[in-house]
Amino acid sequence: MSGTVFVCGLLVVVGLFGIVVPVIPGTILVALGIGIWASEQGSVTSWTVFGISAAFLVAGALMKYAVPGRRLKRTVPTTTLVVAGLCAVVGFFVIPVVGALVGFPVGIYLAELVRVGVDRAWPSTKEALKAVGVSIVIELAAALAATTVWILGGVLS
User: Fold this and answer.
1) Cα three-residue angle 93-95-101, rounded to 5 degrees
2) Do 132 and 80 form a contact (C-beta atoms < 8 A)?
3) What is the pLDDT of residues 67-108, one digit of tens each?
4) Taking Cα atoms as reference points, which of 100, 27, 92 lies closest to residue 64?
5) What residues contact 111, with CB distance under 8 A and at least 6 apart?
6) Per-10-residue mean pLDDT, the chain, length 157
7) Residues 12 and 128 sit within 8 Å (Cβ to Cβ)
8) Which residue in 25, 26, 49 sits closest to 39, CA to CA?
């Protein structure tokens, strides 16, 4: 295994981790790793692998917003999502590494608490978090499909 393949593999692994823990731009790192590999290989097979992988990543990126987005819009209004996003940004700086993961659900709960009251705030927060979970699963599945294509392409080339 060459150094380039190792670095590309590391980019892909870090990218997959970044999808599950959304601090790192996961999909971009997976695409970058496979793209660098294809550029280094320079063969028709490697560029075909990159094209197929990129198609999976683009489809996943589009679906991760479209599919859970409808569910999210039925559950909570845009203002709640804006508050949650702001709380995620604040959380990112207040609690290093995991602050955004804490700030987002806290922001949803607080905004829903103000909007619908104590009794209905937690159920709507759970539904919103389920939609976010579906988004992560869609993006991860697309990245894993792209990674599988890359591994198969590496074996075949």
Assistant:
1) 95
2) no
3) 887 777 778 888 888 898 899 889 888 887 778 888 888 999
4) 27
5) 76, 79, 80, 83, 84
6) 83 90 85 94 92 96 84 82 89 82 89 88 87 89 95 84
7) no
8) 49
